Amino acid sequence: MTTARPRRRADAQRSIAAIVAAARAQLAANPDASVEDIARAAGVGRQTLYGHFRTRAELLDATLADALAEGEKTLSGLDLDGDADEALTMLLGSSWALVAESAALLTAAQPVLSAERIRELHTAPAQRLTALVHRGRDQGVIRTDMPVQWQVNLVHYVLHGAAVELRAGRLHAEQIPAVVTATIRSALRPDPA
């Protein structure tokens, strides 16, 4: 009798993982993908999906959290110490693809998740970038005549804009790191003395 419970738990975890993976794929391709589309892509029925995620909001919360956690694993492995200008280039080159996926997920999540919850899910990436901007300002490679939060938001706006341009076919994936880096560096670089 005790072996059935761990097996059921393992089956449930596999179902949840399949549903979240399908939601990430479906919503990255189409932020308006339906719960039915996601269930079909996961290979489960709607009843199974709703057994794990009672609402679309719960599903989107788990999906966005999963994407951000995976991105956090990637970005936390970067060595961003030392020269802030080089670190910013490395961070931008590594994060644009993560932002491309999360931008579509964010589009899907904004109607059903609170702004507070979305900010909470983005805490770690925001803290990393804020610390880097502060260090760049201290090293003289990032201008100091603008608020730090504005500079952090500027980076996010440009990354999200690149994701939109990629989905629209106006930018190609191989162009984005250079375009994003050039745009952000020109906006953040101090004026020559």
Automatic annotation (TrEMBL):
<protein>
    <submittedName>
        <fullName>TetR/AcrR family transcriptional regulator</fullName>
    </submittedName>
</protein>
<dbReference type="Pfam" id="PF00440">
    <property type="entry name" value="TetR_N"/>
</dbReference>
<keyword id="KW-0804">Transcription</keyword>
<feature type="domain" description="HTH tetR-type">
    <location>
        <begin position="13"/>
        <end position="71"/>
    </location>
</feature>
<feature type="DNA-binding region" description="H-T-H motif">
    <location>
        <begin position="34"/>
        <end position="53"/>
    </location>
</feature>
<dbReference type="InterPro" id="IPR050109">
    <property type="entry name" value="HTH-type_TetR-like_transc_reg"/>
</dbReference>
<keyword id="KW-0805">Transcription regulation</keyword>
<dbReference type="InterPro" id="IPR009057">
    <property type="entry name" value="Homeodomain-like_sf"/>
</dbReference>
<keyword id="KW-0238">DNA-binding</keyword>
<dbReference type="InterPro" id="IPR036271">
    <property type="entry name" value="Tet_transcr_reg_TetR-rel_C_sf"/>
</dbReference>
<dbReference type="InterPro" id="IPR001647">
    <property type="entry name" value="HTH_TetR"/>
</dbReference>
